[in-house]
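thought: user wants a sequence for this fold. calling inverse folding tool.
action: design(structure=
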């Protein structure tokens, strides 16, 4: 990097390690195979490698405190001492055991190794509630507040990591989640408490941390306030002014880069520009149109960080086209008050494209992962600083790749385009209303009250992963692998029958991932080896790359469903992933509207639904776990998204008879936001994650008077805890306060893929016992 280059910042980088080193270290620690020192040493080595990598790639504004062992919201809560009473913390440094208990729950004693290092949680505690980070697939731990809430400095992680980086030769810009966004993302068990009212109590801790950073040499601090891209009320706007006014008064020499992302400032622009900060970061990928207004209205001395490289997707930028747009900014602001950055933290993209030797060369030339995005940023910084000639070859290669992608026949299929454009209204509706269908389905299935089922997957054991790996490497042939899968499936079906589940699943042992499995059998998708991104904690996913038009060459699930159903007389659900979830959990092409890509996927899934029904499937589950996740952050944009999202689900589900029962599943969501859309989906049964929220998420269905059937989760599968019958019964009693008994199913929160059999077996036995106890209650009431 030359002195004439415009500064390049990254905002944050992936923390998982190129080979998922953090996952390995965490799970080794949680299982008791390694100690705390080993875990922390791995974390330190990953941070050092991240800082070195950024410097080598030409990044001049390197972040610190963007690393986390689990989640940045959880880290913030620990920093300010917002530890709910249930976790037994009494002050001082927060033990790692307490940290992981908040993240994962704890059995207490020796049942969960994550909570045996110097802190005993007695009978155990559940994890904190978890939900999606804005409109991403990243999950954060929801802060919990009370009316008596106090805050105290309980972690110096931000300062420690700044000093750690400095000791390695890196002068970093520490990252903190802004106090207003932190409070707005939290919740209180007291409905009368507005978390924003806690700001005066919270700010002294933030100022203490900032003062310590400044005293140790930090000149800039990045304060993330993504709430600025939401619809904000006056109280929130005033809270932002109060918070940053207090910081400016206490630390006049400390420069704050106020960071927004995932959208445009819109009507919050005036608020953002009125804050006493030294810099403002803009997401110019999601909202490129805001640049002109900011250039016009921003004070001359304000440093603008231009987020022009997509931090949420993996497509290579057209750098010459970007330069044409950005040179106007240089002309108006000069180079002294500009920085080039990704639109948001690079947490949401894989680390390095060079780890992908098997990708189609054409497709690979169109992609850019975290490492490549940093190189793109450095190229832009050099070019905008007057060094176009030094990077002319990179600029030419970028333009060539953009042109080749646009013209490639690998991307475009005219038959698919024509089919998606001609979807008739009749394809979007069931033949009869739910009340009629429900009667037909009750006659067909004759299920007991409070029927029990699971969401789809069962534990992917080391043996399953080993067999899959051997098959992929060619050391296990087709016949041997198929036999292994049949044995796993049969064992799981027999066990479900043994414990008395009413509606069975086949376990999905042949599936690597609920999206990847389908994408591998659909045209228009490609897959990576090491394209991992963090979903939560040690749970990482490899999103498919949706690069072209989508169709289904042949049936994808019928054979395995048919085999599983042949083993039992009980209903066996066909298990599919819905089009909106496939879309939202993929890296989606950016050359057509998302609605167009989704409609193509919906038609492919419709073909599969109809083939399953023809084969005899009486219950078909079409998971839309990510429907809420894709909801735009501004309410003015909701209707457009929900209209096409619901339409796509109905395209999938509406081609079956009344007697065929359509299920769907949704992950943690604020259902109040989308209850009309859920009703419009018209699934016969919806299962949802509710255990951590203590059934509060059912309030939306109760208020709406939702008529269809619902399976509220009573078993938190994101935690190793095994809930007792009494705990599950209490949850179902809360559900019964909100919904009619005839509507209720009993099921876990989500699929069981990530859990161990020794956790799943007792939990599901308890779940079946819960349903039977409820049936006994009904029988006694009827006597």
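)
observation: tool returned 783 residues.
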């Amino acid at each position: 990097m030359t002195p004439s280059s415009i500064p390049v910042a990254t905002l944050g980088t992936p923390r998982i390690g190129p080979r998922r080193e953090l996952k390995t270290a965490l799970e080794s620690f949680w299982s008791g195979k390694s100690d705390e020192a080993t875990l922390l040493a791995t974390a330190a080595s990953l941070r050092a490698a991240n800082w070195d990598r950024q410097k080598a790639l030409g990044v001049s504004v390197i972040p610190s405190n963007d690393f986390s062992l689990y989640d940045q919201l959880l880290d913030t809560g620990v920093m300010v001492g917002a530890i709910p009473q249930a976790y037994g913390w009494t002050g001082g440094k927060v033990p790692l055991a307490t940290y992981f208990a908040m993240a994962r729950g704890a059995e207490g004693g020796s049942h969960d190794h994550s909570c045996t290092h110097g802190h005993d949680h007695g009978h155990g505690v559940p994890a904190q509630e978890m939900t999606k980070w804005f409109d991403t697939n990243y999950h954060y731990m929801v802060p919990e507040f009370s009316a008596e809430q106090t805050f105290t400095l309980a972690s110096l992680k931000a300062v420690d990591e700044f000093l750690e980086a400095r000791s390695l030769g890196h002068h970093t810009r520490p990252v903190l989640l802004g106090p207003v966004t932190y409070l707005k993302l939290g919740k209180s068990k007291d409905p009368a408490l507005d978390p924003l009212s806690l700001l005066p109590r919270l700010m002294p801790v933030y100022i203490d941390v900032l003062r310590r950073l400044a005293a140790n040499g930090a000149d800039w601090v990045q304060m993330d306030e993504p709430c600025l891209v939401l619809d904000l009320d006056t109280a929130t706007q005033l809270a932002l002014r109060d918070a940053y006014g207090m910081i400016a008064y206490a630390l006049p020499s400390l420069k704050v880069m106020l960071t927004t992302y995932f959208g445009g400032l819109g009507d919050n622009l005036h608020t953002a520009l009125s804050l006493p900060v030294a810099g403002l970061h803009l997401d110019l990928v999601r909202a490129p149109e805001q640049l002109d207004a900011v250039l016009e209205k921003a004070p001359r001395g304000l440093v603008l960080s231009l987020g022009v490289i997509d931090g949420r997707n993996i497509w290579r930028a057209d750098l010459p086209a970007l330069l044409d747009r950005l040179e106007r900014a240089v002309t108006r602001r000069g180079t002294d008050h500009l920085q080039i950055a990704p639109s948001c933290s690079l947490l949401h993209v894989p680390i390095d494209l060079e780890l992908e030797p098997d990708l189609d060369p054409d497709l690979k030339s169109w992609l850019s992962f975290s490492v490549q995005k940093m190189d793109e940023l450095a190229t832009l910084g050099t070019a905008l600083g007057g060094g176009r000639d030094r990077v002319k070859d990179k600029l030419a290669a970028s333009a060539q790749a953009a042109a080749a992608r646009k013209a490639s026949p690998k991307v475009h299929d005219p038959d698919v385009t024509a089919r998606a454009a001609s979807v008739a209204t009749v394809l979007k509706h069931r033949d009869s209303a739910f009340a009629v269908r429900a009667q037909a389905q009750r006659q067909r299935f004759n299920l007991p009250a409070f029927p029990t089922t699971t969401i789809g997957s069962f534990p992917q054991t080391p043996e399953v992963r080993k067999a899959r790996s051997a098959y992929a490497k060619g050391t296990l042939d087709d016949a041997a692998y198929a036999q292994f899968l049949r044995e796993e499936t049969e064992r799981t079906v027999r066990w479900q029958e043994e414990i008395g589940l009413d509606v069975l699943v086949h376990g999905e042992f042949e599936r690597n991932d609920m999206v990847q499995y389908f994408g591998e059998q659909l045209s228009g998708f490609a897959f990576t080896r090491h394209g991992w991104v963090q979903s939560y904690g040690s749970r990482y996913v490899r999103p498919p790359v949706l690069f072209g038009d989508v169709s289904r060459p042949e049936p994808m699930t019928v054979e395995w469903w048919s085999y599983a159903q042949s083993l039992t007389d009980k209903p066996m659900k066909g298990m599919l992933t819905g089009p909106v979830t496939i879309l939202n959990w993929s890296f989606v092409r950016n050359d057509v509207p998302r609605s167009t890509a989704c409609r193509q996927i919906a038609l492919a899934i419709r073909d599969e639904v109809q083939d399953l029904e023809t084969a005899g499937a009486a219950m078909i589950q079409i998971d839309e776990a990510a429907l809420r996740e894709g909801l735009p952050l501004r309410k003015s944009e909701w209707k457009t998204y929900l209209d096409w999202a619901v339409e796509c689900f109905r395209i999938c589900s509406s081609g079956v008879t009344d007697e065929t029962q359509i299920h769907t599943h949704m992950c943690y969501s604020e259902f109040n936001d989308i209850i009309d859309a859920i009703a419009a989906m018209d699934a016969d049964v919806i299962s949802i994650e509710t255990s951590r929220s203590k059934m509060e998420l059912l309030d939306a269905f109760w208020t709406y008077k939702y008529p269809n059937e619902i399976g509220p989760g009573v078993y938190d599968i994101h935690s190793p805890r095994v809930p007792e019958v009494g705990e599950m019964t209490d949850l179902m009693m809360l559900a019964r306060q909100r919904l009619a008994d005839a509507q209720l199913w009993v099921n876990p929160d989500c699929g069981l893929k990530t859990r161990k059999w020794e956790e799943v077996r007792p939990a599901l036995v308890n779940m079946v016992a819960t349903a039977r106890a409820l049936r006994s209650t009904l029988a006694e009431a009827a006597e």
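thought: summarizing for user.
answer: Here is the designed sequence. Residues 109-123 have pLDDT under 50 and may be disordered.
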